[in-house]
C-alpha cells in the first residue's frame, strides 16, 4: 500500500455532509452484517478533491477483520476503469470511439460483427451479451483474440440495449493489446491507476504478494464463491468484472471523473473527453437485462429522469453517473454536488436484496449533501 493516499482528508461537516445521515448509512450496513447478508463491507465519500468519510466493517475473510487496506472484488465496477483506458486511447488519437472495432482488431469482423463501433460496445448494444471467454484465455493473448473474434451475434448490433456482463470488455482488453502492445492490466495500471496515485489500492490483476489483502467473495448461503476465490481469478484482471480496490480508491477515481479528469494535481483525461464519454447514449430505451432504462454512457450509466434507477439512488441528481458490481457494490459521482461515493461488500446477494439495499444507501448519501 502507498504511504500517503492522494486525497487529503476532511471531516464530513467541513465538506457540507450531514454526519447524522452518514450515521444512518453506517447503521444500515451494520444491521445487514448482523443479519448475515454479508460478512464485511467498506464505504467512502469524497467531495471537492477531499476524502470526507471512510469506514470498514466486519470481516474480510473468515477470522480476518476488514481494515483500510482490504481489497474488495469490484465485479462490474471494473468496467468503468477499462472503459477509461479506451477513452485515453481515443484522446491520444490512437482510435476513435465512433470507429468500428474491426479497424483496430482485424478478424473481429467475422460473423457479421464488422460494423460494431466502440460506442455500441460500451453502451451494451454490440449484440453478443452471452458470449464467454474461457479461463484458458485469461493469460493467453493469442487465444483471447481468437475467442473474441469468434463471438457470435445474438441480435443485430444497435437494435437492442442488453447488458453484456463480461464479453464486451474482453473485446476492449484485446483492442488495448492490439493498439498498444501491452497487456490490458499493465496498460490500465500505467495509464489510469498509477497516475492517480492509486497503485497501492486499485488493481485490475492482483499480483501474488498483494493477494493476502483481498476479501473472499461469498454466495448468499455463506460459501466462498468460485472461481472468484482462486489466485488465478484474482490475478486475471477480468476487464469486465475482476478488479479489486478499496472504497476510498474508487471514490478518488470518481473524483477524477468529476473534476475534468484530474484530482490532487494528477490528470489522466481531459474535460472534453469525459464530457463525450459520460453522457446518455441510450435515452430511455429499456435495458432488457435490467428491465428498466439505464441511460448508458460509454462505461458508466446515468441517473436520468426516469422514475427509478438501479443503484444510484432515486433522489440522485439526473447527472449522477456510476456503476455497480453484481449483488455487492456500487460506486457513483454527482456532478451537481461534487460528491463521489463507493460501497463495497463481500457477498454476491440476490438482486431483490441488493437493489433495495443500494437504493437506501445511495439515497442516504445523497440526503447527506446539505450545502
Question: Would you mind describing this structure in some detail?
Answer:
- The chain is α+β, with helices and mostly antiparallel strands and 371 residues long.
- It has 2 domains: 13-76 and 197-367, DD-peptidase/beta-lactamase superfamily (Beta-lactamase), CATH 3.40.710; 82-180, Methane Monooxygenase Hydroxylase, Chain G, domain 1.
- The protein has 10 helices and 14 strands.
- The chain has helices spanning 19-34, 78-91, 118-122, 141-149, 167-180, 184-193, 231-236, 247-258, 271-277, 351-367; strands at residues 40-47, 50-61, 64-65, 72-75, 202-203, 243-245, 262-263, 266-267, 286-287, 292-293, 301-302, 321-325, 329-334, 339-345.
- The strands form 4 sheets. Strands 3-2-1-14-13-12-11 form a 7-stranded antiparallel sheet, sandwiched between helices.
- A hairpin with a 3-residue loop joins strand 12 (321-325) and strand 13 (329-334).
- The longest helix has 17 residues, at 351-367.
- The two termini are 33 Å apart.
- The relative contact order is 0.18.
- The model has no long low-confidence stretch (mean pLDDT 97).
CATH fold name of the largest domain, please?
A: Beta-lactamase
Total helices: the number is 10
Assembly state here? single chain
| Strand segment count | 14
Instruction: Supply the helix-strand structural class.
Output: alpha+beta
CATH superfamily of the largest domain, please?
DD-peptidase/beta-lactamase superfamily
Tally the structural domains.
2
* The CATH architecture of the largest domain: 3-Layer(aba) Sandwich
- What is the straight-line distance between the termini? 33 Å
Enzyme class: hydrolase
EC number: 3.1.1.103
GO molecular function: hydrolase activity
Keywords: Hydrolase
Amino acid at each position: 500500500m502507498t504511504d500517503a493516499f492522494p486525497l487529503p482528508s476532511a471531516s464530513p461537516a467541513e465538506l457540507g455532509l450531514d454526519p447524522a445521515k452518514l450515521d444512518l448509512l453506517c447503521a444500515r450496513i451494520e444491521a445487514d452484517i448482523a443479519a448475515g447478508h454479508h460478512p464485511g463491507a467498506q464505504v467512502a465519500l469524497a467531495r471537492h478533491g477531499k476524502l470526507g468519510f471512510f469506514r470498514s466493517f466486519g470481516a474480510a475473510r473468515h477470522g480476518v477483520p476488514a481494515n483500510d487496506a482490504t481489497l474488495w472484488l469490484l465485479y462490474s465496477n471494473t468496467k468503468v476503469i477499462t472503459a477509461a483506458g479506451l477513452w485515453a486511447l481515443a484522446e491520444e488519437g490512437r482510435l476513435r470511439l465512433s470507429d468500428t472495432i474491426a479497424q483496430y482488431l482485424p478478424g473481429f469482423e467475422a460473423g457479421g460483427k464488422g460494423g460494431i463501433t466502440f460506442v455500441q460496445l460500451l453502451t451494451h448494444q454490440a449484440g453478443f451479451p452471452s458470449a464467454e471467454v474461457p479461463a484458458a484465455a485469461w493469460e493467453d493473448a493469442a487465444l483471447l483474440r481468437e475467442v473474441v473474434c469468434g463471438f457470435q451475434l445474438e441480435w443485430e448490433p444497435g437494435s437492442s440495449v442488453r447488458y453484456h456482463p463480461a464479453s464486451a470488455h474482453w473485446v476492449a482488453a484485446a483492442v488495448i493489446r492490439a493498439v498498444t502492445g501491452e497487456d490490458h492490466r499493465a496498460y490500465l495500471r500505467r495509464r489510469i491507476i498509477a497516475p492517480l496515485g492509486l497503485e497501492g489500492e486499485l488493481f485490475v490483476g492482483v499480483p501474488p504478494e498483494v493477494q493476502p489483502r483481498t476479501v473472499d467473495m461469498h454466495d448468499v448461503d455463506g460459501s466462498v464463491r468460485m472461481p472468484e476465490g482462486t489466485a488465478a481469478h484474482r490475478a486475471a484482471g477480468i476487464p469486465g468484472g475482476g478488479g479489486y480496490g478499496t472504497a476510498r480508491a474508487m471514490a478518488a477515481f470518481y473524483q477524477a471523473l468529476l473534476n475534468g479528469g484530474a484530482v490532487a494535481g494528477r490528470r489522466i483525461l481531459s474535460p472534453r473527453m469525459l464530457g463525450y464519454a459520460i453522457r446518455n447514449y441510450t435515452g430511455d430505451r429499456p435495458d432488457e437485462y435490467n428491465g428498466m432504462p439505464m441511460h448508458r454512457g460509454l462505461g458508466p450509466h446515468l441517473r436520468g429522469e426516469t422514475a427509478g434507477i438501479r443503484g444510484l439512488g432515486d433522489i440522485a441528481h439526473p447527472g449522477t453517473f456510476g456503476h455497480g458490481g453484481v449483488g455487492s457494490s456500487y460506486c457513483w459521482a454527482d456532478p451537481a454536488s461534487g460528491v463521489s461515493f463507493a460501497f463495497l461488500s463481500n457477498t454476491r446477494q440476490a438482486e431483490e436484496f441488493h437493489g433495495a439495499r443500494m437504493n437506501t444507501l445511495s439515497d442516504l448519501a445523497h440526503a447527506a449533501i446539505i450545502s
